[in-house]
């Protein structure tokens, strides 16, 4: 299976560069950058068909400008993600909450799950 998505227009085999979606309630056609995944209710278009796109009378075409260049994660983003994973994996001491009568509401802990006592008990 090819990893390159093709234009949805009949008999067009060019690679897709944009995705077209419709907002029927607003009578709007939205043409934006190629979506990450192919969706059943969206149409992938090549550069030629995206440029020549027109909408029915009474409809508006909204063209979303693609950012220049591919998206790249900065080292700050990756470092923040790594720190968040480390923090989530760090064992936490059990936090003891106090019920209305001053008794503990936490009965036990296993990993990230806690067993809480019912307020009725």
Tell me what you see in this structure.
A hairpin with a 4-residue loop joins strand 1 (18-23) and strand 2 (28-33). The strands form 2 sheets. A 4-stranded mixed sheet has the order 3-1-2-4. The radius of gyration is 26 Å and the shape is elongated. With 121 residues, the protein is of the alpha+beta class. It is built from 2 helices and 6 strands.
Q: What attributes characterize this protein structure?
A:
four-stranded mixed sheet, 2 helices, two-stranded antiparallel sheet, alpha+beta
- Beta-strand percent range: 15-25%
Q: What is the radius of gyration computed over CA atoms, rounded to a whole number of angstroms?
A: 26 Å
Q: What portion of residues is helical?
A: 10-25%
What can be said about the biggest beta sheet?
4 strands, mixed
Molecular shape? elongated
N-C termini distance: 59 Å
SS-based structural class? alpha+beta
Counted beta strands: 6
Can you count the helices? 2
Poorly predicted ranges: none
Mean pLDDT comes to: 78
In what order do the strands lie side by side in the largest sheet? 3-1-2-4
The sequence of SSEs as H and E is: EEEHEHEE
